[in-house]
Amino acid sequence: MVKNLDRRKSSILHAIIQEHIITASPVGSRTIAKKYDLGVSSATIRNEMADLEELGYLEQPHTSAGRIPSDKGYRYYVDILMNNKGINSDKLIKTLSEITKAKKGIHGIVSGITNMLSEFTKYATMITEPEFKNTKLSEVQLIKVTNNKLLLVMVTDNGFVSDKMINIQQDLDKRKIRYINNFLVNKITDKNINNLDKNYFDEIEDELLKKINLSQQLFNIINKEIKEIIDPRDVNIYIGGTSYILDQPEFNDIEYLKKVLNILDHEDTLKKLITAENNKEIEVRIGHENEMKEMQRCSVVIANYTIGDKAVGKIGVLGPTRMEYPRVISTVNIVSDILSKIISEVNK
Amino acid sequence: MVKNLDRRKSSILHAIIQEHIITASPVGSRTIAKKYDLGVSSATIRNEMADLEELGYLEQPHTSAGRIPSDKGYRYYVDILMNNKGINSDKLIKTLSEITKAKKGIHGIVSGITNMLSEFTKYATMITEPEFKNTKLSEVQLIKVTNNKLLLVMVTDNGFVSDKMINIQQDLDKRKIRYINNFLVNKITDKNINNLDKNYFDEIEDELLKKINLSQQLFNIINKEIKEIIDPRDVNIYIGGTSYILDQPEFNDIEYLKKVLNILDHEDTLKKLITAENNKEIEVRIGHENEMKEMQRCSVVIANYTIGDKAVGKIGVLGPTRMEYPRVISTVNIVSDILSKIISEVNK
DNA sequence: TTTTAGCACTCAACTAAATAGAGTGCTAAT
DNA sequence: ATTAGCACTCTATTTAGTTGAGTGCTAAAA
Question: Which of A143, A236, A266 lies closest to B141 in CB terms?
Fold first, then answer.
């Protein structure tokens, strides 16, 4: 799809992008000639820059300014040019393990890592709470809270807990509750959650309704709540480092800044922002590649983190299109790896 | 402490503050004379304004500008001048009850109300998750997760759930766990949480250690986790409406905006910001009354919400000192009342 | 054919000066 | 005690002028 540029054009584009990422200003031919030892004069570079502009890799804010990379230019940089040699990960790994030790429970871990990621990248970051695909339920407990409330607690084999309060109309005595509880334990623990699909629930339902005098309505509620835990519609999302956005000169425009912050303020738009394919390890969305038009001057780096082979959550970093891609991408890679390990192994 | 101003000075100060809250600009004598029917000429108002400045209620950005209220001026306004007739609360109450119905669990309710409060006030808002003072534990369940992990689930009589994963070195069989569980149920449920103090735990400890062969270390861990649930060191805090901050012209200064957002970005500073006395129903902190110097161009309205007579959480609204105090205060009052009811009565 | 030196041209950004206008403070009359 | 009137102050806005980074083109050199 993307036609490769010849060697010299590549070098020049590379130099311009690197320079622009540092200075945040349009880059001129003389700067490149002086700072980057390409063995050609500024005039030659000038001609090449005109070509690169015509090909769509560069843009010119106005006639007498230097060039800035276009989204296409950044895309070429990310796909082909940049050297992805990564960062020194020692400190990152150390900090991560400290967080894991200090925090208990999924909330603390995920929000701690979100903040840490933003401190390392100096951009705004977001991480969704994991869904528990590819785990097994190791415990199910139905606790009577009051006459019309049951608490359903489910523990996954990787050590996380989910609970739901269930409103019931029908009063159930403790014995019956214990019976249902045991029934559920038999049916749904120690099985991969992915296999607990609709068909399986239908089977359970039939059996349970036959065996005890449990109203259809009650079963539906319990059923629904279990499914909700296993496959939540509404996943929490954590965000950190919002104020780093203001360090970037492209957000000095208050009106624009407001649009961006407004998106970060609302869970629904935020989730839409870091929607990504589950099967890709890492996804970089540059400028107009973002669906939301308010985000089209931003880039987002999104990674999945996993349990086994299933993506269970997303890690995202948001910055201007002039983002330090190599640093961000390798940081996100490391964090998603480690987070995958943490949530997979909490219990092992 | 605050000496009362005479009637005319009061009216003029009142008019200036109201005008300034609307326009966000320095207010001149002629504007007041024209817009507010005080029955005196601009020259008289001018003289009074000079007096009010000398008394510290007004400030002049520069010689040829109008006046703006000082923190002292706002304080006088909040304590004495403003009419606290409140807002039309119908819509607010309706929205609140919708949130309560739609959301289950404390996270959803508190974060939903935080967002709603910011939408109503158009300022940034924050609400802490409730601590469970003045409730009783209605259920305690110790669930074996693995050989070295127990899950402790506690349900309060107002229907909220807290859980902690406990790492244990000693392997416990199910019977022993059930024994400890029953023991705990007997000892700590159905008692007001406030009475479960250190002495009481010492008693329990003695008894439990005597009766079963439970290592001191294990008891300490369980003990600690129970205390942590009852009196958490680390309370979650929710924040909403950050982007509304940008609507206020006083935050057009990017450097200042960054300082403020930075405070909102970090849980520790955020909590410090809405620290307030537990016994006051509502607290308004104007400008320099805020401890953090980055906040001294802001005002914060803080209310406690309660279970019974105990403050269990805080509601805060953050805006510029030029905040619409009457509207914010009455909104916060209503929300804290309702939130108190919601968390007290979830289960009744 | 490719590269480069040289130069006229462009245009945003900055600077300085001029102008407008909102508002004050004081004085003298009411 | 109040107010009309006016000189004075100071910011904000406008306008004109200047600077300088950077381009694109041309013609010579490699």
Answer: A143
Task: Test A153 with B143 for CB contact under 8 angstroms.
Answer: yes
In this chain, the answer to whether the domains covering B90-131+236-345 and B137-230 adopt an identical fold is no
Least confident of A263-277, A290-304, B100-114, B256-270: B100-114
pLDDT of residue A104: 67
- What is the spatial distance, in angstroms and rounded to an integer, between the CA atom of A64 and the C1' atom of C13? 12
Residue with token string 């029955």? B39
Are B212 and B162 within 8 A, CB to CB? no
Q: Which of A242, A255, A267, A346 to mutate to test the interface with B (most CBs of B within 10 A)?
A: A242
Of the candidates B302, B289, B329, B333, which has an alpha carbon nearest to the alpha carbon of residue B237? Answer: B302
Question: Residue A293 above 60 pLDDT?
Answer: yes
Query: Is residue B19 a contact partner of residue B27, using CB atoms and an 8 Å limit?
Result: yes
Best mutation target among A107, A125, A136, A151 (most B Cβ atoms within 10 Å) is A151
User: A263: nearest CA in chain B?
Assistant: B243
Neighbour tally for B346: CB within 10 Å = 19
C5 nearest neighbour residue (CA to C1')? A43
Helix (H) or strand (E) holding A307: strand A298-307
Strand C proximal to B54 Cβ, under 7 A: no
- Residue B348 is predicted with a pLDDT of 46
**What pLDDT digit, counting tens, does each position of A226-239 carry?**
788 777 878 899 99
Partners of residue B178 in chain A, C-beta under 8 Å? none
Which residues numbered 85-104 in B keep a CB inside 8 Å of some CB on A? 104
* H or E segment to which residue B36 belongs: none
Position A85 pLDDT exceeds 80 = no
- Cross-chain residue pair B241–A265, CB shorter than 8 Å: yes
The domain spans of chain B are 7-81, 90-131+236-345, 137-230
Query: Is the C-beta atom of A252 closer than 7 angstroms to strand C?
Result: no
pLDDT tens, residue by residue, B251-295? 998 889 999 999 999 999 999 999 988 888 899 999 999 999 999
Q: Is the pLDDT of residue B212 over 80?
A: no
Report the top-level CATH class of B7-81: mainly alpha
Provide the CATH topology of domain B137-230: Enolase-like; domain 1 (3.30.390)
Decide which of B158 and A184 is more confident.
Answer: A184
Selected residue of B141, B153, B247, B268 to mutate for chain A interface (largest A Cβ count, 10 A): B153
A175-192 tens-digit pLDDT: 888 888 888 888 888 888
Residue with tokens 């906040």: B295
B78-CA/D1-C1' distance, Å: 31
Class of domain B90-131+236-345: alpha beta
CA dihedral (A156, A157, A159, A164) in degrees, to 10, reads: 10
Any idea what DSSP says for residue A37? -
Is residue A348 over pLDDT 50? no
Per-residue pLDDT tens over the stretch B25-37: 999 999 999 999 8
Topology of the domain covering A90-131+235-345:
Beta-Lactamase (3.30.450)
3-state secondary structure of A180: helix
Chain B hits for A167, CB-CB cut-off 8 Å, are none
Q: How far apart are CA B209 and CA B203, in angstroms?
A: 10
Of A107, A55, A324, nearest to A237 (Cα)? A107
Over its C-alpha atoms, chain B yields an Rg (Å, rounded) of 26
Mean local confidence (pLDDT), B232-247: 92
Residues of chain B (25-44) having a beta carbon less than 7 angstroms from strand D:
39-44
On the question of pLDDT at B3 being above 70, the answer is no
- Interface contacts A/B by beta carbons within 8 Å: 102
Interior angle at CA B312, CA B310 and CA B314, nearest 5: 120
B235 in contact with A at a CB cutoff of 8 Å?
Answer: no
Condensed to tens digits (0 to 9), the pLDDT of residues B99-140 reads 888 776 788 899 999 999 999 999 999 999 998 888 888 888
B252 and chain A: CB distance < 8 Å anywhere?
yes
